[in-house]
Design goal:
This protein is mostly helical and about 110 residues long. It is built from three helices and no strands.
């Protein structure tokens, strides 16, 4: 009969880890992305009736606009996840941030 031995390491279990100021700060920063995603979806929900009446959109177009927001998040995750794994989170985040502002400037000038 095989016996199962406990694997011992120098690491403590997550349940007994302390939550200090740096851990709470990291938790706060990590939750910010979720809040921004929720805000963008909420804003689209508020604006959609105005957009629909202003541009006389069909039900198909309303659905496509709503799904474009989620589809953009999917593409962002598919591209951003591997970029963060390859280059690190901070460089990937700031590169995306710079790219976003460059595109916004192009839209304003164009």
């Amino acid at each position: 009969m095989m016996s199962i031995q406990a694997h011992t390491t120098d690491q403590m279990p997550i349940e007994s880890a302390s939550m200090g100021r740096p851990e709470y700060w990291n938790w706060f920063l990590a939750s910010g992305g979720t809040l921004i995603d929720g805000l963008s979806i909420f804003s689209l929900g508020v604006a959609m009736p105005l957009i629909t009446s202003r541009f006389s959109l069909s039900a198909l177009m309303v659905g496509l606009i709503g799904s474009a927001l989620v589809l953009g998040a999917v593409f962002g995750a598919v591209i951003g996840g591997p970029a963060a794994d390859r280059f690190g989170r901070k460089p990937a985040f700031f590169n995306r941030h710079d790219d976003y502002h460059r595109r916004r400037a192009d839209q304003r000038l164009g």
